[in-house]
């Protein structure tokens, strides 16, 4: 029958390593669940801003392709984030796409991507997609960057690409500029400073661009409130970004995203107000979670907190919490350093209260 015939052809033609992969799983969003699993900003826009946005969208026509170079949007970014003319910008459909484009630009079977572990899983996945060599160097037990192990790996593998997420996901800490400089100085290839969570942190790698020829800064609007629009961006030396740009599919940023992002940048103070609120609530939530004596909570410079259950099975806690209407992420089993770890995105004060109440009930039993 047809299904078997399809299977036979898939088996014959799809790369065996692709057949062996598991698709990236994102749980279906259930209504009424408090969603604290994906580092989203929990706040809607104020209603006047929402209305102004809808008004602005009335000027949009969808029959034409978008501006392929996003020239207006680039200008809006330069102004909003004070990006010097010396540097180029490149937009992606989320920074996920930018990781893929960067990797494609250097890919080859003998080429290596290096990153500390645990970190953002997409670095490794994309290396696998492109049949590249991936090397993950474990962080210390306190999640600090093991510089000497990283330097050794640089010497052994001469990586084409190094990803350093600062602050790091899922550990929430920053590695520190001095350590990052040592990695950059030792590397021949390109070092990507992934600043997805920079809005919640005092760290800022922008000044590294002035000092080094092998650095690019990657950021995203996903965590500050525009996750649904999908917009990530690279800031870097034109020489690097012009090459990466050749691999970008035309029109990767659609008209609605271009217009909506440009609109949001005119109201960037509103987004900053929300991120400041999230940072304050993160500290409150950290304090309250730390009060549970069977939970360890790490400090965080991101919009989430990493915790470890000391007496309970974290995966089970995650399941039971979902049954009580709160979705968080269990990292148990994803890396040896993350045994019984849970990652909780900071929600609104009301959402955080529900989380604390339900978690208290579960941890007490
Ligand atoms: N980098 C890091 C460190 C992340 O945690 C994430 C999202 N989880 C991303 C990049 C990708 O974000 P997006 O594709 O939404 O821009």
UniProtKB/TrEMBL annotation:
One matching Pfam family: Aminotran_1_2
Keywords for the protein's UniProt record, in alphabetical order: Amino-acid biosynthesis, Aminotransferase, Histidine biosynthesis, Pyridoxal phosphate, Transferase
Top-level division of the source organism's lineage: Bacteria
The keyword Lipoprotein is assigned to this record: no
Single Gene Ontology MF annotation: histidinol-phosphate transaminase activity
Residues in coiled coil: none
Catalytic activity: L-histidinol phosphate + 2-oxoglutarate = 3-(imidazol-4-yl)-2-oxopropyl phosphate + L-glutamate
Domain Aminotransferase class I/classII large, chain residue ranges per copy: 32-358
EC assignment: 2.6.1.9
GO biological process terms held by the UniProt record: L-histidine biosynthetic process
Modification N6-(pyridoxal phosphate)lysine occurs at: 223
Pathway(s) where this gene product acts: Amino-acid biosynthesis; L-histidine biosynthesis; L-histidine from 5-phospho-alpha-D-ribose 1-diphosphate: step 7/9
HAMAP family xrefs: HisC_aminotrans_2
UniProt similarity note: Belongs to the class-II pyridoxal-phosphate-dependent aminotransferase family. Histidinol-phosphate aminotransferase subfamily.
Protein name: Histidinol-phosphate aminotransferase
UniProt organism field: Zooshikella ganghwensis
């Amino acid at each position: 029958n047809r299904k078997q015939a399809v299977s036979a052809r898939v088996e014959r033609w799809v790369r065996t390593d692709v057949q062996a992969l598991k698709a990236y799983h994102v749980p279906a969003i259930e209504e009424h669940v408090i969603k604290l699993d994906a580092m989203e900003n929990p706040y809607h826009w104020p209603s006047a801003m929402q209305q102004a946005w809808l008004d602005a969208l009335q000027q949009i026509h969808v029959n034409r392709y978008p501006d392929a170079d996003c020239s207006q949007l680039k200008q809006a970014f330069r102004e909003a984030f004070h990006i010097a003319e010396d540097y180029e910008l490149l937009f992606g459909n989320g920074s996920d796409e930018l990781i893929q484009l960067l990797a494609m630009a250097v890919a080859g079977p003998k080429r290596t991507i290096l990153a500390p572990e645990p970190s953002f899983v997409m670095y490794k996945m994309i290396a696998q997609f492109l049949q590249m060599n991936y090397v993950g160097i474990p962080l210390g037990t306190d999640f600090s960057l093991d510089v000497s192990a990283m330097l050794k790996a640089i010497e052994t593998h001469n990586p084409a690409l190094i990803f350093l997420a600062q602050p790091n996901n899922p550990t929430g800490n920053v590695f520190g500029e001095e350590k990052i400089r040592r990695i950059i100085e030792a590397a021949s290839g390109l070092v990507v400073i992934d600043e997805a969570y920079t809005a919640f942190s005092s760290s800022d790698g922008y000044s590294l661009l002035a000092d080094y020829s092998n650095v690019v800064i990657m950021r995203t609007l996903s965590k500050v409130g525009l996750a649904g629009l999908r917009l990530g961006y690279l800031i870097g030396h034109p020489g690097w970004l012009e090459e990466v740009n050749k691999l970008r599919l035309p029109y990767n940023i659609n008209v609605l995203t271009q217009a909506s992002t440009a609109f949001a940048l005119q109201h960037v103070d509103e987004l900053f107000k929300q991120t400041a609120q999230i940072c304050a609530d993160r500290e409150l939530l950290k304090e309250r979670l730390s009060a549970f004596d069977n939970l360890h909570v790490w400090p965080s410079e991101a919009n989430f907190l990493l915790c470890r259950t000391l007496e309970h099975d974290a995966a089970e806690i995650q399941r039971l919490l979902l049954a009580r209407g709160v979705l968080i992420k269990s990292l148990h089993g994803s890396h040896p350093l993350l045994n019984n770890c849970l990652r909780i995105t900071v929600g609104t004060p009301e959402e955080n209260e529900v989380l604390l109440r339900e978690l208290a009930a579960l941890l007490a039993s």
